[in-house]
Please model this.
Amino acid sequence: MIRVYLDANIILAKSAGPEKEPRQFPQAEEIFNKIKNGEIEAVVSPLTLMEVRNALRINHGKETTILAGMEKSQRLEYVIKTSEDDYNAILGELIRMGDKVIFKVKKNIDMNQILDDAMEIVMSIRGKTKSYRDCKKCGTDNVNYIGFKSLGTDDALHALLANEMDCDQLLTFDGDFNEIKGNPKIGSLDIQVIEQRF
Amino acid sequence: MNYQLTENELLILKELIRKIFENYNDNKNLTKISKKTIQKILYKLNKKLSEGNPIRNTIPFYWFLAGPYSEKVDAGIIAMKSEQVLLPANGIYEMYMFNPDLIHSRFLDHDASFQEAREIISQEVAQMRGFSNLQLINDIYDEAPLLFYPTYKSRFLVYFESFCNYYLEQDDNLSNLFSENDILESLEKTKLSLPSDQLFKKFNGIYQDFVLIITKVLNYNRKNDSEFLTVLQSLGDLANKVWNVFAYGARILEHHEFYEPKVLMWNEMFTDQTLQLEEAIRKTSLLVTEVLQISLDRKQDVIKSLEDKAFKKKLAKLVGFDKIPEYDDNSFTRLTGIIQSRIKTKDFDSVELVRETREG
Model:
């Protein structure tokens, strides 16, 4: 049975469901079916959990209509409370999946080595400049701008962590991971960037 | 063996064996003697008879699986059994009684050469008073022409078989008489006593691999694992196989001239057996590596599982559980869309959200 490291976007896509996440949900569902049937063993690292938590906060922070109707002092509490409820619900179900989902593989992980390797990986990737026609952060369309894009430092950390946690594969929806595929620092880890359905 | 004795040879053997039984009965009040003991007493006789004594040619020996062995003596015992001179008796080994009607009648007149034999038999049997068959064997092995006989068969193999029985029979009443160190020390001594003759060159080479396997297994520190017991079973068989092959070579080096016509055939058998042993050792080596690695991996998995459990306990508390909840198959279904109703944003995009998290 292969051991698979799950990226945060897979957990979020499954938790969001088919209506809210139609592009990524089917593949996420397929992955969790494989976990359930014992075809693969899933690893959810503490780094992934932190990202799920923060992604939920960012998402609730985008609820501008609701937040606008609140007192300024209540907004942060709302974001933290709603995202915390979401996170606890997700984590509770992941824990109930028993040995099919692993959170910790080793007692000690050599973080110094991981950081050294991550630095080398990030330094070795040049990245690219890209023209954008809309802003994914604020949602504004037709705002032509040019930006620099490269492998995120966290992406390198995930790949190295997956390798350190004896995973055979890293599954993600994020195409940025393509840049790290086959890098000698990640050993035999197979990075699979899953195609989005639409 | 199917050797055809001459009439005179059979008469000499009958009389020699009768004398053994007669002395045994007189000295020890024992009426039963094993075939192996008869062989060994006659071997001692052969060694002590003066050079020109013709009886020596009636009892020619070679060194084989259980020490000195004579095909002529074996043929004599079979003939005596069929003539009901020897009567089968109950016992762990192949035991015989001498026909009570014949035990006091000589099968031939005792000339000078027989008188010498008679005296030696009397001395040997008298010296054996109180000795067990095992002690007689050890006694003979200690004087063996090849040092490997006592070091391997009388010591290492005895120690190792006792060790195997202790673990394989899982009997608490069976005490483990020999420690791993005892066995490894005895194994080291067998290496020093391997025959230096060119004939054993290949055997000696593969024997080093056998020593490595035994050392690896004895140093393994989880001896109650089922994997370890599987390996131990195979090793017990292999240790006996090693002995058999050695014995096939030993008789080529240590035999009476009577067996000279058989040496060519023995050589072929030894070569063949050595090749088979090489293959058996290679396979066992692979088995040992594979099986013990599985056991180590399993141990690693247990450690991983414990680490994960401890961390899950911590996470469970953060979520509000008192302890780690039981496995629930429905959790996979419940996770689907668990936050769906709480998502108020228009375009929920998991990939972009995580990217934003990473970008800060």
Q: What stands out?
A: The beta strands of chain B are 32-34, 62-64, 67-69, 86-89, 95-98. Residues 7-136 of chain B form one domain. Chain B has a mean pLDDT of 87. Chain B has twelve helices and five strands.
